[in-house]
TrEMBL record:
NCBIfam families referenced in this protein's UniProt entry, alphabetically: PRK01130.1
Family: Belongs to the NanE family.
Protein's job: Converts N-acetylmannosamine-6-phosphate (ManNAc-6-P) to N-acetylglucosamine-6-phosphate (GlcNAc-6-P).
Name of the protein: Putative N-acetylmannosamine-6-phosphate 2-epimerase
Gene3D superfamilies linked to this entry: Aldolase class I
Gene Ontology annotations of biological process type: carbohydrate metabolic process; N-acetylmannosamine catabolic process; N-acetylneuraminate catabolic process
């Protein structure tokens, strides 16, 4: 790890990363809008920002916090920065950390996770966050050379139940078995959830929907108003 890589990890330690993503067809799906939300999150104290899509990453070039970039291609199976080519493009767009699918599933380009990380490092000086779905994924991702282990895909790959809040059990399992920094991510919907994720052993916490997806947040309130008391 280079000195600058260590600095980036240090800057995220103990902090909140805000994931700013809008989905295809949604009104806020616009790189400028996502960059504005990212800047607002930084004003609020975000230690890092997670952005999806090459244009969104480029648009946020002026942020002075580390940017975790990814490129979602597809909706099923391996779709988070699924190939080496996607990973290189995310790095070229300016991400400090490239988030890639960190599961043990076959990748579309036929490379293993270890080969992907090694070949990315031959061309780019970037950190790699492995988006994992289970302890087995995290162990394999650490062995493959990932710099950060994310719990991003817990509940989405069939190996773990989709918990109502964050998968605290998985965070604790990864803490006990791995030494790489852990990013708790996925269904962290409140400050209390974020604190619980840290208490379970996460080094940093990434929140998306509960901060940056107003359609979902609105639906939570609407559902609550529709409940009988
Ligand atoms: C599973 C998947 O595709 N996760 C994506 C990864 O980038 C995003 O859709 C999530 O919003 C992000 O992980 C943050 O999680 P949450 O929005 O639950 O705070």
């Amino acid at each position: 790890m280079t000195a600058s890589s260590a600095t980036i990890i240090d800057r995220l330690a103990g902090g909140l990363v805000v994931s700013c993503q809008a989905y295809p067809g949604e009104p806020m799906r616009d790189p400028r809008t996502m960059a504005q939300i990212a800047r607002a999150a930084v004003i609020g104290g975000a230690a890092g920002i997670r952005l999806q899509g090459l244009d969104d990453i480029r648009e946020a070039a002026d942020l002075d916090v580390p940017v975790i970039g990814l490129w979602k291609d597809g909706k099923d199976g391996v779709f988070i920065t699924p190939t080496l080519a996607h990973a290189r493009a995310v790095a070229d767009a300016g991400a400090d950390i490239v988030a890639i699918d960190g599961t043990r599933r076959p990748r579309p380009d036929g490379l293993t996770l270890a080969e992907t990380i090694a070949q990315l490092r031959e061309t780019h000086d970037v950190l790699v966050m492995a988006d994992c779905g289970s302890l087995q994924d995290a162990l394999a991702a650490e062995a493959a050379g990932a710099d950060i282990l994310g719990t991003t895909l817990s509940g989405y790959t069939g190996e773990r139940p989709k918990t109502v809040g964050p998968d605290l059990e998985l965070i604790a399992q990864v803490r006990a078995a791995c030494t790489a920094p852990i990013m708790a991510e996925g269904r962290i919907h409140s400050p209390a959830d974020a604190r619980a994720a840290r208490n379970a052993g996460a080094d940093a916490v990434c929140v998306g929907t509960a901060i940056t997806h107003p359609a979902t947040i609105t639906s939570w309130f609407v559902a609550a108003l529709g409940e009988d008391i």
